[in-house]
Structures are given as structure tokens and as C-alpha cells.
Write a structure and sequence with these properties.
CATH class of the largest domain: Alpha Beta
Largest sheet: 7 strands, parallel
Number of domains: 2
Structural class: alpha/beta
Oligomer: single chain
CATH architecture of the largest domain: 3-Layer(aba) Sandwich
Number of helices: 8
Helix content: 40-55%
Strand order of the largest sheet: 3-2-1-4-5-6-7
Order of helices and strands: EHEHEHEHEHEHHHE
Length: about 260
């Protein structure tokens, strides 16, 4: 399957590292003009420089803006003009005793992980529907379905993204615009290696260590290894393409079989 996104402009929020950076690189590799987003101008430029080394000729636009605010969302869209592909990847997470999470923290998780996606979607959909083509994707998590006891606030926000995606997909019915969510499973991102080696033998090579970690601490995974960010990016790039024109309102899993269910 040859995916060609030439002539399309994408915005990937929170894309200076990890899954977001892999998605931005993947879209650029497919020919899209991609807005690389983060709050720090320096970090955004460093990410752009790194991606241009990985994807020669990539058309990347630095978008330094805090998209959790009305002003920042507007700045991000102004930097790119027309947006054909919106990937709401930005998110925060950490473990916490559920009885100790304050009201303020609950609101912060909703504002960052959910409302920022709603706000940007609301801003780009009119133009997409008018042009008769557009792609909106919300990066969710296995935690949306298998709520972690130590991250209830995070799980709540990702469950909300599934509902948001389905609802906006209904809003765009028959317009040529698709809206989907992507359920990412346990992924090899920054800091994960240190976390893994806290739980398994530090003398093991990385490939063996991560498999030992998955067997012992994430046994429900059918993949039995951590997912690489590029593997999640592959699904996002496909959903951004013309080939995915009949896929909308879905919650597509790139979870390595972690969620023990036929449907989300």
C-alpha cells in the first residue's frame, strides 16, 4: 500500500518526542506538510532539526504554542493556515493514589487530555467539512478501557477521548471528514527503559529485559514486547490517508493485544 499525503497539512500536538514525534515523522515521510508542536520554541526547533535528519526533505513547520489555551490553539492554527489532518496527541500522565487526587488535578487532566483536543477539533472541522476532506485522530490508550487503579484520572481522560471521537464522527457524517481514536498499548518511550530495569535483571540485554518485563508485569499482552512509537505512527498515517476513507467513528487498537476484548 502506497500512502501519498502530498498537498496535505497536518498538525500533531505534543510532537517533540515519543509517540507524537514518531507520528510527525511518519506523516512527513508520506509527503505531508507537518506542524511540530510543543510549548518551548527551543525544544520544537530541536525536534524539527532531528526529524529533518531522519526524513530528508521533510516539510516541517515549527509550531511553538500551548494548545491547552484558546490563545495557543489559535496561534498553532495561524502558523499552519489550512489544516487537513489533526492529530490530538498531547497528554499528561502519572500515577497517583486515587484518594489523594485533588479537584484541581482532575480538572487539569480533563483540560489537557480532553478539552485541548475538543477545542482544536471544533476549530478545524468547519474548514474540513467545507472542503469535503479531513482527518481528525485522537490518541487514546489501553488505559481508556483497562482503567489503572493508580491512574484513574488518566484513564478517565482517555475514555472521554473515545466518546469525543465517536461524537464528532457523527457530527461529520457524510462530509468526507473522518474522526477516529487510536488506542495505544504499552509503548517504548522516554524513561521506559529505566522503569523496566527497576523491575527486571539489569544485566539483561534490552530485548530480553523488555520481554521479561512484559511476561512478568504485563502478561495480558499478546505481543510480549513493548510497542515502538513508529508502530503506532503507522496506524495514524494510514488513517490519515485516502485509503482509510471508510473508517470513521472507530477506536482502533495498536495495543499488541493488551486489551482482552474483541471490541474496545
Amino acid at each position: 500500500m502506497r500512502i501519498d499525503l502530498k498537498g496535505r497539512t497536518a498538525l500533531v500536538t505534543g510532537s517533540t518526542q515519543g509517540i507524537g514525534a514518531a507520528i510527525a515523522s511518519g506523516l512527513a515521510r508520506a509527503g505531508a506538510r507537518v506542524g511540530v508542536n510543543g510549548r518551548s520554541s527551543q525544544r520544537v526547533q530541536e525536534a524539527v532539526d532531528r526529524m529533518q535528519g531522519e526524513v530528508p526533505g521533510a516539510d516541517l513547520v515549527p509550531v511553538a504554542a500551548d494548545v491547552t489555551t484558546d490563545e495557543g490553539a489559535g496561534q498553532a492554527l495561524d502558523a499552519l493556515g489550512q489544516v487537513d489532518i489533526l492529530v490530538n496527541n498531547l497528554g499528561v500522565f502519572e500515577s497517583a493514589d486515587p484518594l489523594e487526587i485533588s479537584d484541581e488535578e482532575w480538572r487539569r487532566y480533563f483540560d489537557v487530555n480532553v478539552l485541548s483536543a475538543v477545542r482544536l477539533t471544533r476549530l478545524v472541522l468547519p474548514g474540513m467539512t467545507e472542503r469535503g476532506w479531513g482527518r481528525v485522530q485522537n490518541i487514546a490508550s489501553d488505559s481508556a478501557v483497562v482503567i489503572p487503579a493508580e491512574m484513574i484520572h488518566y484513564g478517565m481522560s482517555k475514555t472521554a477521548l473515545l466518546a469525543v471521537s465517536r461524537g464528532f464522527a457523527k457530527q461529520t457524517a457524510g462530509t468526507g471528514v473522518t474522526v477516529n481514536s487510536v488506542i495505544a498499548g504499552p509503548t517504548h518511550t522516554g524513561g521506559v527503559e529505566d522503569f523496566v530495569y527497576q523491575l527486571v535483571d539489569r544485566d539483561l540485554p534490552w530485548d530480553e529485559a523488555q520481554r521479561a518485563f512484559m511476561r512478568q508485569h504485563r502478561p495480558q499482552s499478546l505481543l510480549q514486547r513493548l510497542i515502538e512509537p513508529e508502530e503506532i505512527a503507522n496506524m495514524v498515517v494510514y488513517l490519515a490517508s485516502d485509503q482509510a476513507s471508510a473508517t470513521t467513528g472507530g477506536a482502533l487498537r495498536v495495543d499488541g493485544g493488551y486489551v482482552d476484548s474483541i471490541l474496545p
